Each structure stands twice: as structure tokens, then as C-alpha cells.
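TA notes, week 10

Several of you asked for a full example with nothing omitted. So below is the full record: C-alpha cells for the whole chain, then the designed sequence directly under it. When grading your own attempts, check the secondary structure regions first.
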């Protein structure tokens, strides 16, 4: 859990390696305002990482090198996680401490993923996916309690939606039992689209534990690193294409 950079994914490793290029830490400064706080940093680095910021910063009409860019729909906490990752390749200086102290750590991760999706930052999205999966493998609950937020802020086919669905569809022996318990706990009210995706996903496969790659995992009924293919939830495109079409 200490290493926050995806291992074993050549595309992700290549993106993160390019982001360390010293030439990206030069160029003109850019000012961005989030909430009531202003941030100043090099425009070349953020332009490389994000298709949204690349387009905005190089807009000859707006000319955001001379005036601040205002992000109306972004939290300071989310933007600061992005900035720390942009310069260090990690989400937090001490992820264990942040996880312990934050009132809803996984919700924050989902919010950062949504921000990265809006801004076309595939490497950040992949980093978030890896951490969410690692937390789940370590025993955290699935993402059902965040489904309403996820579905309201992502488009159909989004990788974060797929992950939330698969955590249930591919790991519960009885989907009917899961739905019954979810109804009792009132965790799926108003989440019909998620239920539809869940049923479609389950019907398309033989059943749960599809990802169990070894006999030990199948017999022990345990989540393990060999059971989840993280790349299935990665965005393997290079920066340069907006995903959700929503304003950050």
C-alpha cells in the first residue's frame, strides 16, 4: 500500500515516466482559482498530464497565462491531491495517515477519479483505480455506498462504474441474496441504473469468482492480487481526450 504507482501496467508506467521529464517543469506560470484559493504552477507540466488544461491554457482567446482560470465545480481538497500527484507521482505524502484521519477516504478517491475523468488525466485515474482495488483486496467494503455519486458524475461505460459493478457481480455467489441485504440496509435506493448494470454484467458471465486465477483463491473464497486484473479498469489512452465532457 505504500507504493502508489501502478506496477505491472506498461502503459501506466510509461505515462508516469514521461511525467518526470525535467523539461516539463519549465515554461510559463499558470494561475488557477479553486474556491477562494489560488494556485500557481508551471503550465507545461499540467498541459502534458491533462487534455482539458492543455486546451484551456493554450486557448489564444482566453490567454490563461495572464489571468486566472477558475474551476467552479472542484473542491480544494481534490485539486490539492491532484497537484501533489502531479509533482510527486503519489497521491499523498503518507497515505496510511491520510486514510486513518480522513472521514471518508474512499469517497475522496472517487472524487479525485471523477476530477481526473473530467480533465482527461488517464494516469491519475489509473492510480486511483489501483488504490481502490488494493483497499478492497485488503478487506474494505465494495463501492456500493458511493454508487449514487459515481453514477451522477460519470458517463455510461466509465471504468469506475465497471469496478463498482464487478466488486458485486463477480464476487457474490447469490446476487439475489446481495440485493435482498442491500434493500434491507437501504443502500440501493435510487440506484436503478447500477442494478441494471449489475444484472447485465452477471448474466454475461458464468458467475462469481470469475477472476480467481488459482485453486487456493477459489477454495478459500478470498480476494487476492491474483484475482483482479487492474488493467481492465485502466484508461490506457494518452492524455489528449476528454472523457466525461463535464466541466471541472
Amino acid at each position: 500500500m505504500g507504493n502508489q504507482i501502478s506496477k505491472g501496467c506498461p502503459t501506466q508506467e510509461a505515462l508516469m515516466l514521461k511525467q518526470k521529464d525535467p523539461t516539463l517543469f519549465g515554461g510559463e506560470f499558470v494561475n488557477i482559482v479553486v474556491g477562494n484559493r489560488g494556485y500557481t504552477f508551471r503550465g507545461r507540466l499540467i498541459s502534458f498530464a491533462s487534455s482539458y488544461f492543455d486546451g484551456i491554457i493554450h486557448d489564444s482567446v482566453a490567454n490563461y497565462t495572464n489571468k486566472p482560470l477558475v474551476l467552479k465545480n472542484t473542491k480544494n481538497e481534490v485539486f490539492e491531491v491532484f497537484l501533489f500527484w502531479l509533482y510527486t507521482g503519489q497521491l499523498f505524502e503518507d497515505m496510511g495517515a491520510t486514510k486513518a484521519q480522513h472521514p471518508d477516504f474512499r469517497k475522496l478517491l472517487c472524487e479525485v477519479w471523477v476530477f481526473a475523468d473530467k480533465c482527461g488525466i488517464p494516469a491519475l485515474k489509473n492510480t486511483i483505480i489501483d488504490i481502490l482495488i488494493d483497499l478492497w483486496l485488503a478487506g474494505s467494503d465494495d463501492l456500493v455506498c458511493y454508487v449514487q455519486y459515481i453514477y451522477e458524475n460519470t458517463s455510461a461505460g466509465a471504468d469506475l462504474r465497471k469496478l463498482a459493478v464487478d466488486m458485486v457481480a463477480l464476487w457474490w455467489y447469490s446476487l439475489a441474496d446481495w440485493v435482498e441485504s442491500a434493500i434491507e440496509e437501504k443502500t440501493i435506493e435510487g440506484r436503478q441504473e447500477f442494478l441494471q448494470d449489475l444484472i447485465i454484467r452477471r448474466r454475461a458471465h458464468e458467475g462469481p469468482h470469475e477472476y480467481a486465477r488459482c485453486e487456493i483463491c477459489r477454495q478459500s473464497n478470498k480476494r487476492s492480487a491474483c484475482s483482479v486484473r487492474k488493467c481492465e479498469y485502466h484508461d490506457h489512452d494518452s492524455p489528449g481526450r476528454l472523457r466525461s465532457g463535464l466541466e471541472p
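Residues 122-137 form the longest helix (16 residues). Use that as a sanity check on your answer.
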